[in-house]
């Protein structure tokens, strides 16, 4: 680089530092500024010879992360210093000891937590990513700020990912959507969650992202005008009440519009609440609640509310600490509009999450207790040694995005639970012992099954008994990670106890058969009975599933080597006979894998039924070889995030020789001759074979499901487009 360029870069670095101090959400003391300056100088020195892939000086990354931590998330000086230093131990000659001496224990502990996350050994046996997440969450023990700075680090990496290889982009974006966005949501960082989701979609489904982005830009002017029109109607009434407020329009995120389009199978134009209007008012703490309902009554005086869409998170804040009043009203031109009513304090908590609680802290606030409770619960899950990393990440995710319901204990205390919870989840949320001895439950004084889904406002009483204990069916009734983990570990304990007894029984029975009870024999038994571990073997003996006759068969097969050889020969094909025959593709493959475009054996996965022309990827499974999934398969994110090293690129080449099955759904207004028009279009005009037809008509509306045999995606899309043009048909989609 030329001297002029270096001077320019140094100026830019100095400018960024000044801005970092200026935009800090917390008020910085002189001590704080000294700490940040020292951290900044150390980071500049440590990274002086490093550059990012884009070519810019590496120091811009830690500064950007520190800026997100300072303004967007609003953390304190210790966190800002730790953010500036977050890559120093990992990438440079500075050690943790150096940082401890220079900056003290608090900063060193956070940097250590962040370094632990980055320096994970590459272990291919268990999913590397899942293990990473588990270790990352373990750093919550050290300091929750570790996770928050990690989220800021991920946000900046996502913002600057353009220069990376496409496969790396997909891996990082999947991981972001799978763990980091839900984590930001759970900590209450809604703005960051939204940005992470949008950026995640940008790299996992670029065409979809661009399409929605373009449509939002096209309709922006019209939306701005609509927000002005809406605001004008209520401004006079708000002004009459001498309220200090501002009204903001907020477009829905690209990710959430896309989620709605997919979930409800509608087009972009049919998404009715593409934006929300936010009324943010000034208030002292005593008046806050009163003013929120006052604004509510003013809005509903002018616009009719949708009674099913009132969300009162002021009386019962979410466990993330979020407080607001949400109503959906019928605005001008017959459009539904979501109106969010928040005080300035509530708005800061919604945007800054954890940090804002501390700014407004008066004693131990309700939100903080909720947050602490969540961290404690998470600790419990983390400390359960029996659960493997992938299961843990799955369980952890269950508790991240879950919508909440509020139920009452018999004494009238309010408990918050994830939506979809059952009495079992409620029992375990009160105490593990109550959960483990649950015998039944009453909801609103009526006996209900343990699988009963609780609703907000229910009063729940748990009936316990000393003799009650979990059984395997409980896993079907429990939905929260905590309940499931406790049930699994209780079942495991029971299994171990039975296995201990089974082991003693097996030793006796083998002795009667004059067979030595040793490791070699146990391994032979495990193979003979097609089991996985010796624990399975002892357990089956303990419950009587492996009886005397079966052990005699083993003894005779053991004494006859020829028979045993023969049995193994016969046994081998029986494994594959269980496989679904239709899942195995024909001898000629239309799919090629990897950069070299090799032809490999593969199977089409049942979860998303890809057909030629679909965007797909290969997943190397443990027992089933390569399974092919569509890129928008419901399981794609989880696979790409948790098992990135097992993903293999795949693309279709020639799909002319084979037929594939696809299902389309139709909906419309029933009229005579519609069915024959549909079948005529498919079989006569398109020459496509139909395997199955199912039409249902009720009250003038018809719905249909047709199973077609098609060559590829293009033919299927053409059929869908042509069916949409038939008079009376409202929606056509692929299942």
UniProtKB/TrEMBL annotation:
Domain TGS: 403-464
InterPro entries attached to this UniProt entry: ACT_dom, Beta-grasp_dom_sf, HD/PDEase_dom, HD_domain, NT_sf, RelA/Spo_fam, RelA/SpoT_AH_RIS, RelA_SpoT
UniProt pathway: Purine metabolism
Domain HD: 58-158
Coiled coil: none
Listed Pfam families: ACT_4 (PF13291), HD_4 (PF13328), RelA_AH_RIS (PF19296), RelA_SpoT (PF04607), TGS (PF02824)
Entry superkingdom: Bacteria
Sequence similarity: Belongs to the relA/spoT family.
Role summary: In eubacteria ppGpp (guanosine 3'-diphosphate 5'-diphosphate) is a mediator of the stringent response that coordinates a variety of cellular activities in response to changes in nutritional abundance.
Protein name per Swiss-Prot or TrEMBL: RelA/SpoT family protein
Source organism per UniProt: Gramella jeungdoensis
């Amino acid at each position: 680089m030329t001297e002029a360029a270096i001077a320019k870069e140094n100026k830019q670095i100095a400018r960024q530092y000044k801005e970092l101090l200026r935009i800090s959400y917390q008020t910085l003391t002189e001590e704080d500024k000294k700490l940040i300056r020292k951290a900044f100088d150390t980071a500049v020195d440590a990274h002086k010879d490093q550059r990012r892939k884009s070519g810019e000086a590496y120091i811009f990354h830690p500064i950007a992360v520190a800026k997100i931590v300072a303004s967007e998330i609003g953390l304190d000086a210790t966190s800002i210093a730790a953010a500036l230093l977050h890559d120093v131990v990992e990438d440079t000659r500075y050690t943790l000891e150096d940082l401890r001496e220079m900056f003290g224990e608090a900063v060193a502990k956070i940097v250590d937590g962040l370094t632990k996350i980055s320096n994970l050994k590459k272990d291919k046996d268990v999913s590397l990513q899942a293990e990473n997440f588990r270790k990352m969450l373990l750093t919550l023990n050290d300091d929750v700020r570790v996770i928050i700075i990690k989220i800021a680090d991920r946000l900046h990496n996502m913002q600057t990912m353009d220069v990376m290889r496409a496969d790396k982009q997909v891996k990082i974006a999947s991981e972001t959507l799978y763990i980091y966005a839900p984590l930001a949501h759970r900590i209450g960082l809604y703005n960051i969650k939204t940005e992470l989701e949008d950026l995640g979609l940008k790299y996992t489904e670029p065409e979809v992202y661009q399409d929605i982005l373009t449509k939002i830009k096209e309709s922006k002017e019209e939306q701005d005008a609509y927000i002005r029109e809406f605001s004008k109607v209520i401004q006079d009434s708000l002004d009459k009440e001498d309220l200090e407020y501002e009204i903001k329009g907020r477009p829905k995120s690209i990710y959430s519009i896309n989620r709605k389009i997919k979930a409800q199978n509608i087009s972009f134009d049919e998404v009715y609440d593409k934006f929300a209007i936010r009324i943010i008012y000034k208030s002292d703490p005593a008046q806050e609640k009163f003013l929120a309902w006052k604004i509510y009554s003013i809005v509903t005086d002018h616009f009719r509310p949708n009674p099913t869409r009132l969300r009162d998170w002021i009386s019962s804040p979410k466990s993330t600490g979020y407080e607001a009043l949400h109503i959906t009203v019928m605005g001008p031109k017959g459009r539904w509009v979501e109106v969010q009513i928040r005080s300035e304090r509530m708005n800061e908590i919604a945007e800054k999450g954890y940090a804002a609680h501390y700014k407004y802290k008066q004693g131990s606030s309700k939100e903080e207790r909720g947050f602490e409770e969540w961290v404690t619960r998470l600790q419990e899950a983390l400390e359960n040694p029996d659960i493997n990393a992938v299961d843990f990440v799955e369980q952890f995710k269950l508790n991240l995005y879950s919508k909440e319901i509020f139920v009452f204990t018999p004494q009238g205390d309010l408990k918050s639970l994830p939506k979809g919870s059952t009495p079992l989840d409620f029992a375990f949320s009160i105490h593990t012992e109550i959960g483990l001895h649950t015998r039944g439950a009453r909801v609103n004084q009526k006996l209900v099954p343990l699988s009963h889904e609780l609703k907000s406002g229910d009063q729940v009483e748990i009936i316990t008994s000393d003799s009650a204990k979990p059984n395997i069916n409980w896993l079907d009734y429990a939905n929260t990670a905590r309940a499931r983990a406790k049930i699994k570990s209780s079942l495991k304990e029971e299994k171990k106890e039975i296995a201990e007894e089974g082991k003693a029984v097996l030793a006796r029975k083998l002795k009667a058969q004059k067979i030595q009870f040793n490791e070699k024999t146990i391994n032979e038994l495990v193979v003979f009975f097609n089991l996985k571990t010796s624990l399975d073997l002892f357990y089956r003996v303990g419950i009587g599933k492996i009886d005397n006759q079966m052990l005699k068969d083993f003894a005779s097969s053991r004494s006859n080597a020829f028979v045993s050889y023969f049995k193994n020969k016969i046994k081998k094909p029986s494994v594959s006979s269980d496989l679904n025959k239709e899942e195995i593709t024909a001898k000629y493959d239309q799919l090629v894998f990897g950069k070299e475009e090799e032809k490999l054996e593969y199977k089409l996965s049942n979860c998303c039924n890809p057909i030629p022309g679909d965007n797909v990827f290969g997943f190397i499974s443990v027992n089933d070889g390569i399974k092919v999934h569509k890129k928008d398969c419901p399981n794609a994110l989880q696979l790409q995030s948790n098992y990135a090293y097992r993903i293999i690129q795949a693309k279709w080449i020639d799909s002319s020789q084979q037929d594939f099955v696809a299902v389309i759904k139709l909906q419309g207004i029933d009229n005579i001759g519609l069915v024959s028009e549909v079948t005529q279009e498919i079989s006569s005009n398109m020459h496509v074979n139909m395997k199955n037809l199912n039409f249902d008509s009720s009250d003038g509306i018809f719905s249909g499901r047709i199973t077609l045999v098609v060559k590829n995606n293009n033919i299927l899309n053409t059929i869908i487009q042509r069916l949409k043009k038939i008079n009376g048909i409202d929606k056509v989609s692929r299942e």
